[in-house]
Specification:
single chain; alpha+beta; 30 strands; elongated
């Protein structure tokens, strides 16, 4: 009690009032507080709940806090990213030590919402010197629809906005007094504003700091400008200890994990005037359905009648409020993203007869350093919410002062002032909630308990890992992390942020075959089918039952299967993409139990389009396709394991909004993968001048010779670099050859080829050797072989024997 006695009672009372408001906004959460999580089924609540559980579990068991061994079995995942955003999991994991996980998660959110309101109250109390006005500002800020969208999505980290008003307060006090202590406070609040989500640097700090700096430049307050910039630099340096893990992991993240959606997650032009279509006040209005769509979480930006009118009043009567309008407009324009959307449809204009989209400033800004890590421009509405809340506070102060000067009602003046404030607060709390059920706020919630038979797996030591399918549905992976809080076993997939980094070839082949031998080799002893994310026809469920038998547990959401035990070893397996039309890329997957070669054949059909083939991201083939083109692509698989073979169109077809336009796509047919040809010796051969032959294979059939070669280029190649294949008889006489350039090749790239060599029809019976090498035209001296070789003379001469064949 001594701690609380030192705090001004008014702040404790205000924080308590905001807690009550948070309960109203999140109703009916209070009625299921300990048994259900706040959040929508399409959101990330289960993902964050799983990460919070891990932090609690690690503290209790002494496991590493920033490495997650129970994800991506058997390798585990680095969880250093969680260090960069500690407020995403704290204090929830601390609460979870003494209460249920749903209760801990929900309590953390309620406390955060109230803290957001209090921090705005603190700032606006300073700006207006009016606590009633400040109270309404805090209410507008904490209840703003943008917060509710992130709340429903379960984005507990993004809700941590309380440090931003305190940062602004510190910078304003620094400008006012010049005292160094405010510089220190400002730097600390700068750091704190990023501890829930490092993306706040883009969506909130960038527009707020930019507006403040421009304001000081415009006013020529050079001393304040220097102090402000120094505070930002100190805050940035202090943030590096948290941001560096994000930057390092982002740099090492595979390109396939990059997320798009910049246009989809941009705000609609009408979003700021689009209330909830579920709200009884606005249910008769049609256009919000189109603006917000079926996935409204990132798109909510409604200013509101009460807050909007108060802001207009403030702009009319309070000149100090006008600077906040400029901040709101700046952030609002950025929130619209790169392309203007109206009614969730890109806007078009015709320029000199050409139909084009209406672009906005973010299309250029999104590619700037740091800003290019963002993909959700609609989140700039956090800054809009901040500015609107401040302007609403100024508006209330105008009303408060106006009533105070209305002398005829001096007797009832205080009561009338508070009646107006209460009515405004009630209107804000009634018009802002998005989710409604039966005339009452109806914030969605999710089940908070794992089905008991699945939770009972926690005591079974014979379970090595769990495989959740369909793995490629993002919500499956999130639910899998929630189920893990019950069964406590490793997951084959799982993720720290957004989607699993586990090799899609591995997961796709395991799911596509459900081969017990392959599953056993991967350590998957239990398969859990997430039925609601299965295909509409239930094909995955039927296939799973056929391969694994009856589930040991089943309900409306899940079916859990034991994987049959087998002593069989996995065999060569593939799941081929048979897409009829490729507009971007298509993936095929291969598992091989040993190194070897495999022949991929297919027919490509396009109108002068470039197509590439990559194996695990390394380009091995490139074709310019004109008309129907049969192609053969021998693929070298250097070790046992999983491989992704990607056929891609370069450049890919763009997203075309006009029905009058079409893309010159790539048609694929007759896809076939041959049997594995094992290779015993997988040692590569290094040539001088930056060339490596990974493997070679000689395929002789009566009437023809095919030589398969897999190259890697340590240094770039030019048109004058010639690769030769020579066939010599037993006397060392040249009987056939193929000397060709492979064209310009970039350093670090690869190239695989099938060289068809026509043999003379009069070849005599006997043994023949096949040699390969390189030279640079017009000098025909072969490149020296640098690798150890049993044939020292040929290595010195730059010719490598890769195989023999016999003619009988």
């Amino acid at each position: 009690m001594k701690v609380f006695s030192r705090l001004p009672r008014i702040h404790i009372a205000v924080y308590g009032a905001y807690l009550v408001a948070a309960l109203l906004i999140t109703w009916p959460l209070l009625t299921v507080f300990s048994t259900r999580f706040i959040g929508h089924p399409f959101g990330d609540t289960y993902e964050y709940a799983g990460l919070i559980w891990w932090m609690k579990h690690a503290v209790q068991t002494g496991a590493p806090l920033f490495f997650q061994p129970l994800l991506a079995y058997p390798d585990g995942l680095s969880a250093a990213y969680l260090w960069s955003i500690p407020l995403q999991s704290f204090p929830a994991w601390f609460f979870a030590l003494v209460m249920s996980l749903p209760a801990a998660f929900n309590l953390s959110i309620l406390l955060t919402l109230a803290l957001n309101g209090w921090s705005m109250f603190f700032l606006v109390s300073y700006l207006t010197r009016n606590r009633a006005a400040a109270f309404v500002s805090g209410l507008v800020f904490m209840a703003y629809p943008t917060f509710q969208g992130q709340l429903a999505a379960g984005h507990i980290g993004l809700l941590q906005q309380w440090a931003v008003p305190l940062l602004i307060y510190a910078l304003l006090r620094l400008r006012e007094s010049g005292e160094r202590r405010w510089m220190i406070y400002g730097a600390l609040f700068f750091v704190a504003s990023l501890l829930g989500s490092s993306l706040n640097l883009i969506y909130v700090l960038f527009p707020v700091m930019a507006a403040l700096i421009v304001s000081l430049l415009f006013r020529r307050e050079w001393a304040s400008l220097r102090r402000t910039i120094l505070t930002i630099i100190l805050g940035g340096l202090g943030s590096l200890i948290f941001l560096i893990p994000v930057l390092l992991e982002g740099a090492a993240s595979p390109i396939r994990l990059s997320e798009g959606g910049t246009v989809a997650f941009s705000a609609d032009l009408l979003a700021v005037v689009s209330p909830s279509f579920q709200n009884p006040l606005f249910s008769a209005i049609d256009y919000p359905h189109q603006v917000l769509g079926v996935d409204p979480f990132e798109k909510m930006a409604y200013v509101g009648i009460a807050a909007g009118l108060l802001a207009l009043l403030a702009l009319w009567r309070r000149p100090k409020a006008r600077g906040w309008l400029l901040l709101a407009l700046f952030a609002w324009i950025l929130s619209l993203g790169p392309i203007l959307k109206i009614l969730d449809t890109p806007a078009h204009r015709v320029i000199e007869g050409y139909d084009t989209l209406v672009t906005l400033p973010w299309i250029a800004a999104q590619n700037l350093p740091l800003l290019n890590i963002s993909r959700t421009p609609a989140r700039f509405n956090f800054t809009v919410a901040l500015a609107v809340a401040i302007m609403a506070g100024y508006g209330v102060s105008v009303l408060w002062d106006g009533i105070g000067h209305w002398r005829r009602t001096a007797r009832y003046q205080p009561r009338l002032q508070w009646v107006v404030v209460i009515l405004i607060s009630a209107l804000v709390l009634y018009e802002y909630p998005f989710f409604w059920t039966n005339g009452l706020p109806g914030m969605p919630t999710l089940p908070g308990s794992v089905p008991q038979p699945i939770a009972d797996l926690a005591g079974q030591t014979n379970v090595r890992a769990v495989f959740d399918i369909p793995w490629d549905h993002l919500l499956t992976d999130k639910e899998a992390m929630f189920l893990q809080t019950g069964h406590e076993h490793p997951l084959l997939a799982g993720h720290i942020a957004r989607r699993t980094p586990v090799d899609p070839a591995k997961l796709s082949l395991l799911q596509g075959t459900l081969d017990p031998a392959l599953l056993n080799a991967a350590g998957a002893d239990v398969v859990i089918l997430h039925k609601q994310w299965d295909d509409a026809e239930g094909k995955t469920e039927s296939f799973t039952r056929a391969k694994l038998g009856d589930p040991f547990y089943e309900d409306d959401d899940y079916a859990a299967f034991n994987v049959p035990k087998t002593d069989s070893t996995p065999v060569f397996t593939s799941v081929l993409s048979r897409d009829g039309v490729v507009t971007d890329h298509s993936d095929s997957y291969i598992y091989t139990p040993k190194p070897g070669w495999v022949m991929l054949t297919q027919t490509l059909d396009a109108d002068w389009r470039l197509a590439t083939l990559t194996v695990n991201g390394k380009q091995v083939y490139r074709w310019t396709v004109s008309g129907s083109t049969p192609v053969q692509a021998p693929l070298f698989l250097p070790q046992a394991g999983y491989y992704t073979v990607t056929l891609a169109l370069e450049p890919p077809c763009p997203t075309i909004a006009s029905p009058a336009l079409s893309c010159n796509s790539l048609k694929v047919s007759d896809v076939l993968l041959g049997d594995l040809i094992p290779v015993e010796d997988t040692k590569s051969t290094v040539f001088a001048n930056g060339l490596t032959l990974n493997a070679g294979y000689v395929d002789y059939r009566e009437g023809g010779l095919s030589v398969w070669l897999d190259w890697f280029f340590d240094s770039a190649r030019t048109e004058t670099d010639i690769r030769f294949v020579h066939v010599l008889d037993a006397d060392g006489k040249l009987v056939a050859q193929d000397d060709h350039t492979l064209g310009a090749q970039a350093a670090g790239g690869g190239w695989a080829e099938s060289v068809s060599i026509s043999l003379p029809t009069n070849l005599s019976a006997g043994s023949y050797k096949v040699y390969v090498g390189w030279y640079t035209y017009p000098d025909t001296t072969p490149f020296t072989i640098l690798s150890d070789s049993t044939d020292a003379q040929n290595a010195q001469n730059g010719v490598l024997e890769i195989g023999t064949f016999s003619i009988s």
